[in-house]
Write a structure and sequence with these properties.
12 strands; 9 helices; three-stranded mixed sheet; nine-stranded mixed sheet; alpha/beta
């Protein structure tokens, strides 16, 4: 596991963020009241930190000179054949622009878990996107489990949007053929991945023989989703599942403050189950054309019936998109255990984040 942070990060501006998972008892402590205007805390509420404070946390993109360790080629590293798992958790805030070089040096890697953050400024967005595309291109051929979760919150990078590379799902579409588990949240949209399954001709016998579990997020579900867009996505997902003989579960989801939606397909021994979780109306989104598409999948792999269930999520329970995670069965595949614990703790502590300091507040310093 790769994780680096400064202890001062959690002592000043980012007191409601966790940076390690080795002290589990910390999460049981009651919330603390902060009043420290110098570090943007006013009577328990935080003002969005300055760009300078954020840059101290995220740092500048690392520039690695591999010649210092004897590499003859600046774009290559010596092969390391004993590393089989690589985890870059969310508490490692700084981007690593040379991840593709690192991955190419790990020929025996079977599991890669990647939890980057959204950029803090728009000028870094292109770098994040190009890095992810390079990672996909460099993913070692023995990798069978790949997860990625791109994090954000109101304190660090609210309002930052990125221009996604054209068809990032095409590269993932090809890679997924050899994977057993694929769990990608907020790095690509499910539409970009599933659209390629709709283009395969019916007579084409290509199948995804290894994939057992799949999780992907989609903006189609939020906010106020159009039924036609939801239908198109879920039917495309059924066409993908039709070509995945070992698939046990697929979860598509989305969330933001006050909104959450999850589509889950589960293949059981005697039947199959479709579940729709929604913080809004339940009925409109599993329409007859979607049901028929998924019945075709169930009939191919299971002789029993296909069961449809709708479940309500209280909208007041969704304080951020991280609030959706407890409703996901594949949450431990979506995030590492320590990161899941961190993000749920941070979400529980989430307070109103101010754009500017309130007027007439004492400057007394109280931790």
């Amino acid at each position: 596991m790769l994780s680096v942070y400064s202890p001062s990060d959690r002592d000043h501006y980012f007191r409601d963020h966790r940076f390690d998972d080795d002290n589990k008892t910390y999460y049981d402590y009651p919330p603390k009241y902060h009043h420290d205007p110098y570090h943007s805390w006013y009577e328990g509420e935080q003002v969005v930190p300055s760009l300078g404070a954020k840059r101290r946390l995220f740092g500048q993109p690392l520039c690695l000179d591999f010649r210092s360790i004897g590499a003859t080629d600046i774009r290559s590293l010596p092969k390391v054949d004993f590393v089989t798992r690589l985890i870059i958790p969310r508490q490692f805030y700084r981007p690593i622009p040379n991840m593709d070089v690192i991955l190419r040096s790990l020929p025996e890697l079977t599991t890669f878990r990647y939890e980057p953050w959204y950029p803090i400024t728009t000028d870094r967005a292109w770098l994040h996107e190009s890095d992810f595309m390079a990672i996909l291109a460099a993913l070692p051929p023995k990798v069978t489990r790949f997860s990625g979760y791109k994090d954000s919150n109101a304190v660090l990078n609210a309002g930052i949007t990125e221009k996604i590379y054209p068809n990032p799902g095409l590269k993932l579409f090809d890679i997924s053929k050899r994977l057993k588990e694929l769990d990608i949240s907020f790095l690509i949209d499910a539409r970009s991945f599933f659209i390629h399954f709709t283009k395969i001709e019916k007579k084409d016998k290509t199948s995804w023989d290894n994939l057992e579990g799949l999780t992907i997020t989609s903006n189609v579900f939020s906010p106020r989703p159009k039924t036609t867009d939801v239908d198109e996505l879920l039917i495309a997902a059924s066409q993908a599942a039709y070509r995945m003989p070992k698939l046990q579960m697929m979860e598509l989801w989305s969330g933001k403050r006050g909104e959450a939606r999850i589509f889950r397909y589960t293949r059981l021994e005697d039947n199959s189950l479709i579940e729709w979780y929604d913080s809004g109306p339940l009925s409109p989104y599993i329409r007859p054309n979607v049901r028929n598409a998924w019945k075709r999948v169930a009939e191919k792999y299971i002789r029993g019936q296909l069961v449809f269930k709708g479940r309500k999520i209280p909208h007041q329970a969704i304080r951020s998109r991280a609030s959706v995670l407890p409703y996901l069965i594949r949450r431990d595949r979506t995030l590492t255990c320590g990161s899941l614990q961190q993000i749920l703790w941070e979400t529980a502590q989430l307070k109103r984040v101010r754009d500017r300091a309130p007027l007439d507040i004492t400057t007394a310093h109280t931790v």
